[in-house]
């Protein structure tokens, strides 16, 4: 028995192999390289230290937050716990009033663990937000009022071994500056 290949089948196979090679070179390999270089840290701040960022001194400390939300609030996951960190942001010795785009680059913050899993305040119970308001804490990195005391509150898994808080600053459309505060 003899295997016969038509000329068209051979050309189709060659075209498919060439297309796969092009996709590999132009898309797949560069995406792997980008993921290896992902999340470069522009500045690391040791535990207990402060950092001057854009003319503002940032200090971080752990924050005790309410344990459980009210019954009318978001249900706490059975394997979750609420954690919080307080940033005190000051300029010339006084807490800043606002963090706005006119003076500072946009920013966002998240908590990360030893496995580089990240959490932000996106799913924080309403009661935690009310608690932050009662204590005079801003709940957004970009707060326009009371920004001197910014509370980052998030629900994290109970088994998470938290390493720090990362703040990202968007200096331009293609430049993001990452600053990591170690909480060790």
Summarize the structure.
This protein has 184 residues and is of the alpha+beta class.
Explain what this protein looks like in three dimensions.
- The chain has 184 residues and is of the alpha+beta class.
- The protein contains 2 helices and 10 strands; from the N terminus they run αβββββββαβββ.
- The strands form 2 sheets. Strands 1-10-9-6-7 form a 5-stranded mixed β-sheet, with no helix packed on it. Strands 2, 3, 4, 5 and 8 form a 5-stranded antiparallel β-sheet that branches.
- The radius of gyration is 24 Å and the shape is elongated.
Q: Under CATH, the topology of the largest domain is which? A: Immunoglobulin-like
Instruction: Sketch the major β-sheet.
Output: 5 strands, mixed
Q: Order of strands in the sheet with the most strands? A: 1-10-9-6-7
Order of helices and strands: HEEEEEEEHEEE
Unreliable segments of 5+ consecutive residues:
33-38
The termini sit apart by 71 Å
- Record field, number of beta strands: 10
Structural class: alpha+beta
CATH class of the largest domain, anyone?
Answer: Mainly Beta
CATH architecture of the largest domain: Sandwich
Q: Which descriptors would you attach to this protein?
A:
alpha+beta, single chain, 2 domains, elongated, 2 helices, Immunoglobulin-like, five-stranded antiparallel β-sheet, five-stranded mixed β-sheet, 184 residues
């Amino acid at each position: 028995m003899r295997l016969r290949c038509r000329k068209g089948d051979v050309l189709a196979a060659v075209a498919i192999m060439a297309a796969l090679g092009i996709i590999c070179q132009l898309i797949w390999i560069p995406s792997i390289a980008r993921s290896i270089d992902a999340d470069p840290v522009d500045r690391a701040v040791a535990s207990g230290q402060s950092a001057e960022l854009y003319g503002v001194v940032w200090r971080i400390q752990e924050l005790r937050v309410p344990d459980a939300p009210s019954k009318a609030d978001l249900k706490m996951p059975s394997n979750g716990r609420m954690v919080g960190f307080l940033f005190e942001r000051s300029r010339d010795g006084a807490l800043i009033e606002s963090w706005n785009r006119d003076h500072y680059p946009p920013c966002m913050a998240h908590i990360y663990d030893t496995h580089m899993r990240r959490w932000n305040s996106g799913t924080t119970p309403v009661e935690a937000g009310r608690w932050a308001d009662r204590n005079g804490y801003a709940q957004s990195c970009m707060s326009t009022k009371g920004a001197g005391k910014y509370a980052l509150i998030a629900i994290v898994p109970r088994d998470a071994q938290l390493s720090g808080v990362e703040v990202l600053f968007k200096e331009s459309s293609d430049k993001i500056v990452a600053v990591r505060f170690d909480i060790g």
